[in-house]
Write a structure and sequence with these properties.
The structure holds two protein chains of two kinds. Chain A is built from five helices and two strands; from the N terminus they run H-E-H-H-H-H-E. By secondary structure, chain A is mainly alpha-helical. Chain A has a two-stranded parallel sheet. In chain A, helix 2 packs antiparallel against helix 3 (54-66) and helix 2 (30-49) packs antiparallel against helix 5 (91-107). The longest helix of chain A is centred in the middle third of the chain and has 20 residues, at 30-49. Classes of the chains: A mainly alpha, B alpha/beta.
Chain lengths: 111, 390
């Protein structure tokens, strides 16, 4: 359901797909992982709207730790930058990186 | 025919608050062909503590930053609860310095999240387990060379536990600190005899690290000694004790007391072997009847071999009932092939009184049986132990 929504969103916005070659042994897990990050992104956007940085920092820390493990090094990089920005309460950077993350999660496709 | 292709089984506690990370690790280990991994997940330190109290693990995969514990402190706390498991730190690149520090404090390895996956993860864990088994426990603990005495019965019901209790009582009266250690995984008798319900089973104690945790887990008896015994009615655990675990426990107990009396049963020879090797003296407790003496004569040589030296095995007779036609002591000594260190006279009813009043050596110090126990305790309080001149 969520994957279908992402696909629709991507087509409507004309976002080109980013194809990521995920190792065979991770293909079973990667789609669910991406879904969880998409849902998490909604949550932290809400938290940030309430001025809460702690949930954002936790989310980013997890992203940083797990992204590469699931075959998405770009998510690890984004997680690292978001975690630092959340820790510094650097709202402009945080918004920029969350936008990057949102676009990546919308565009990424598993090869 | 034996199945030689069977992969080893590894029990792993994954302490990780990230569901994504836990899914990944479990997936990798579940697919591994080098070992059969059984993974239990704990998402906080408190849950990890509960898991460690329930079960023994070969390895612990530990994220240092948990909701209720952070950094190196997490490692120290887990290590104190599971001294003998291989602890592998799961960390991010930014926290590598902390992970390196944990290695200096006894962690087996550390893994950067996202950098090790697939069979590589399984291989690192297996390697950490094997390495931690091969290397003796590194952390320094206060060394106090307490005398370890193994008490073994030549046959069931010979009164080993009664003897251990009374010897411990005598030495406690002499201001010696004494630990009574009933070395069996379950179904022990010391706690039942003394009316104590130990707070932690021996399986739990074995997993505890550090002498402080061990000390806190013992029951303090009203007449002085501390007791480490199997819980009442405990069932055999899935991961039965081996000799190495018994040896580590005895070693650590010896750092906490002047005397450790190990009550072991020959029905668990791995335990007895480990205890004999660690003990300064092995006391074979037997009745003065031909069957017990015949049995004992067959095992004194083995006990001395396990101890690895001579004159460290001796017999103590308990006379539950008088054997008027028993052979004289010199003949018995020859048959036993070891010296005799004590002969306790018959006093069955009096000996049973400790259930209500305490050990007989305290309630009836003037009795012949108490005097005999005091003499035996005196000899065991010295090293080397002196045999009776018979």
């Amino acid at each position: 359901m969520l994957r279908a929504a992402v696909e629709l969103y991507r087509r409507l916005d004309g976002i080109p797909a980013v194809r990521v070659a995920v190792p065979e042994f991770l293909r079973e897990l990667a789609p669910d992982f991406l879904c969880r990050q998409r849902l998490g992104l909604f949550d932290i956007a809400g938290a940030l709207g309430r001025g809460e940085f702690e949930p954002v920092q936790r989310f980013a820390h997890n992203l940083k730790g797990c992204g590469s493990g699931y075959g998405f090094p770009r998510l690890t990089d984004l997680g690292r930058e978001m975690e630092r920005a959340a820790k510094d309460r650097d709202l402009p950077t945080l918004h920029l990186r969350m936008r990057d993350l949102s676009q990546y999660l919308a565009a990424v496709d598993i090869e | 025919m034996a199945d030689t292709t069977r992969t080893p089984s590894c029990h792993v506690l994954l302490v990780e608050d990230s569901a994504d990370s836990a899914v990944l690790v479990k997936h990798f280990l579940g697919a591994s062909k080098i070992a059969e991994f059984h993974v239990v997940t704990a998402t906080s330190f408190d849950l990890a503590r509960e898991a460690l109290a329930r079960q023994r693990f070969d390895a612990i995969l530990l994220d240092l930053n948990l909701p209720d514990s952070h950094g190196l402190d997490t490692f120290s706390r887990v290590r104190d609860l599971a001294r003998f498991a291989a602890i592998v730190i799961l960390t991010g690149v930014e926290d590598e310095a902390v992970a390196t520090a944990a290695i200096g404090h006894g962690a087996a390895d550390y893994l950067i999240k996202g950098e090790v996956g697939g069979e590589g993860l399984a291989r690192r864990i297996r390697f950490a387990i094997e390495r931690s088994r091969a290397i003796p426990s590194a952390p320094a603990e206060p060394k106090r060379a307490g005398l370890v005495t193994l008490l073994a019965g030549a046959k069931g019901g010979s009164g080993v536990s009664t003897m251990a209790i009374n010897l411990a009582a005598v030495l406690s009266r002499k201001e010696r600190s004494v630990i009574l250690l009933e070395l069996r995984s379950h179904g022990g008798t010391l706690a039942a005899m003394l009316g104590v319900n130990p707070p932690v089973t021996l399986d739990g104690i074995a997993e505890m690290g550090g002498t402080n945790a061990l000390d806190a887990s013992m029951s303090k008896l009203p007449f002085g000694p501390r007791l480490m015994s199997a819980a009442l009615g405990a069932q055999p655990s899935d991961a039965p004790w081996d000799g190495a675990a018994a040896d580590r426990l005895i070693q650590r107990a010896a750092t906490l007391a002047d005397h450790v009396f190990v009550d072991a049963t020959l029905a668990q020879p791995a335990m007895v072997k480990a205890a004999a090797a660690r003990a300064s003296f092995t006391l074979l407790v037997l009745e003065r009847d031909p069957v017990a003496i015949g049995l004992a004569g067959r095992i004194t040589g083995t006990l001395a071999d396990w101890a690895g030296r001579r004159n460290c095995v001796g017999a103590a007779f308990v006379n539950l009932v008088p054997f008027l036609d028993s052979a004289p002591l010199p003949a018995i000594r020859a048959e036993l092939n070891c010296g005799i260190v004590g002969v306790i006279p018959p006093a069955r009813e009096m000996l049973q009184s400790y259930r209500r009043q305490g050990p007989i050596v305290l309630t009836h110090p003037e009795a012949q049986v108490s005097i005999a126990y005091a003499g035996l305790a005196e000899r065991l309080d010295q090293s080397p132990v002196e045999f009776l001149a018979i």
